[in-house]
Write a structure and sequence with these properties.
Chain lengths: 81, 161
């Protein structure tokens, strides 16, 4: 565990979470959520949980981003909040 | 202030961020109006809980939980068997190499539990997004208040008849 890297990743994580909830375009929200997932994957590799990290990279970042984009494609792109 | 920073925040920074992320997720799940935003908040909540569990398993200066030098151990055992007179020496080397210091590895038990949690979280998200698409086909909108208003007018219309 590397402390400085840890702090930077955790702060970026909070920023990415807030941006993905605040942005009004749902496609942008899905993409920023993908960025959030890759950041937390990097955090787990750094904390020594490599198995969790590659599961998150494949399943969390890959599949859930695809699900979200498919739903936005089939429905509306604008959000009121 | 400095004392508080050094004693309470710096050693437990992972836990502070875990609580902040969990509260962001809870706020989005309750207060957001758009259904997809609610689901993104739910996913953030889940990853926050996984962050807590993985943080529990981390030790200071710990490495990934894989035991190295497996091949060398095997070689040392073979040498001991073949060398005859030096057999005792070889066996001693093997026992020395078998010592594993748990302090140097992160605890792998929470990692294994959280693998299941990630997969379950993604399948929950998939089912929820399928339900959102069905709701969009039915009502033509993703906003919660508009859906509730449509349900209300439909209910009052059926009561009037």
């Amino acid at each position: 565990m590397i402390p400085i890297f840890d702090y930077i990743l955790l702060i970026f994580l909070i920023v990415a979470a807030v941006i993905s909830l605040k942005v009004k375009d749902l496609l942008s929200a899905s993409m920023v959520f993908g960025i959030y997932s890759f950041l937390i994957c990097l955090l787990w590799a750094e904390m020594g949980a490599v198995d969790v990290a590659f599961t998150e990279a494949a399943v969390g970042a890959g599949v859930s981003a695809v699900f979200l984009i498919a739903t936005v494609y089939n429905t509306k792109r604008r959000s009121s909040d | 202030m400095r004392e508080f920073l050094e004693q309470s925040i710096q050693p437990y920074f992972n836990y502070w961020v875990y609580v902040i992320l969990m509260m962001i997720g809870l706020w989005a799940t309750i207060a957001k109006n758009n259904l997809i935003k609610k689901l993104i908040g739910m996913s953030i909540f889940q990853t926050a809980i996984i962050l807590f569990y993985v943080s529990v398993g981390v030790k200071k200066d710990s490495k990934i939980p894989i035991i190295p030098h497996q091949v060398e151990e095997h070689h040392a055992a073979e040498d001991g068997n073949h060398a005859g007179g030096h057999g005792e020496h070889g066996a001693k080397r093997v026992t020395e190499k078998h010592v594993i210091e748990p302090d140097k590895f992160a605890n792998p038990l929470p990692h294994v539990l959280m693998l299941t949690a990630i997969v379950v979280g993604v399948s929950t998200l998939g089912v929820a997004l399928a339900v959102v698409q069905m709701l969009f086909k039915e009502f033509g909108t993703l906003e919660e208040d508009e859906i509730l208003a449509q349900i209300k007018t439909a209910d009052s219309a059926s009561l009037d008849v």
